[in-house]
Amino acid sequence: MAVTHDVPPQLDELVSTAHRIRQAIESVIEGKSDAVRLTVTVMLAEGHLLIEDVPGVGKTMLAKALARSIDSSVRRVQFTPDLLPSDITGVSAYNQQTREFEFKPGPIFANIVVGDEINRASPKTQSALLECMEEHQVTVDGVTYELETPFMVIATQNPIEMEGTYPLPEAQRDRFTARVAMGYPEPAAELEMLDVHGGTSPIDKLQPVATTEEVKALIEAVRGVYVSQAVKKYAIDLVVATRHSPDLRLGASPRSTLQLIRAARAHAALSNRDYVIPDDLQELAVPVLAHRLLPSVEAHGQRRTPDQVVSELIRRVPVPETRGR
Predict the structure, then answer these.
(1) Are residues 163 and 21 located together in one domain of the fold?
(2) CB 157 within 8 A of CB 165
(3) pTM, whole model, 2 decimals?
(4) Which residues form the ATPase AAA-3 domain (predicted)?
(5) In degrees, to the nearest 5, what angle opens at C-alpha 128 toward C-alphas 257 and 214?
(6) Residue 325 belongs to what domain range?
(7) Closest CA to 306 of 255, 236, 243
(8) What average pLDDT does range 313-324 have in this prediction?
């Protein structure tokens, strides 16, 4: 007999509001509905998004479009080799009038922080985001400051083979809920882009379609989406499989299991369901897990990517039988 649970409040409103946000973003980003859906999913899962691809495919445009679609505070950080940690978190400056040190907040104090080309900064500067992304707080000179809610970091990066890039520390990659690759647009979408973007940028006309309070309510509704014990065990089985795969020398962390479940809740809610099914985990496993994994020497030599390894594990790990709720 299936277990029944109360339907999370405002689920219909969540779907409607999320649809408006997606439509607003897709008015700027043509032909990338999957990337846009994943972006909204990560936001509702209280996570952070890493957008990785070659220059010029719309990584920064996607991040800015989401930021403009929500009436919230937004700060942009251009990561460069000479960027310092204090340029992100803020610094305590001495006020000669009061003869006291005053904290001047950095750009991390915003609802949405857009980090452009994050892997062009040194690992020391990149690590300044670790506490912010995991604990939603910043510690400067021994004083801890709470960050605003909601809080989301959307970072773009070029492939590591590109000139002038540094590899992201494993600890920081693990704090990104998901990674999405934009890819080149289809010819029809690129032709439409030439027509739409030819004169002025459509992002200049983009107006907010949701408020910060609405996003908070949506996040609260996502937290109430039901996850059965069988689905939780399936998530653990997928993550454990990465730790025992001979193709990987670094498997997924326990943090990735938590973030996979959170993202699955948001994915189910966007599908107008108040419960998670195995299909949600399967669809999110690659974007949520693959960027955290390191291939073995043999797999690297065979040009087998973590994305391919995770896809194979999805096919091999037994899927539980579920009865909805």
Answers:
(1) yes
(2) yes
(3) 0.88
(4) 48-177
(5) 60
(6) 225-325
(7) 243
(8) 84
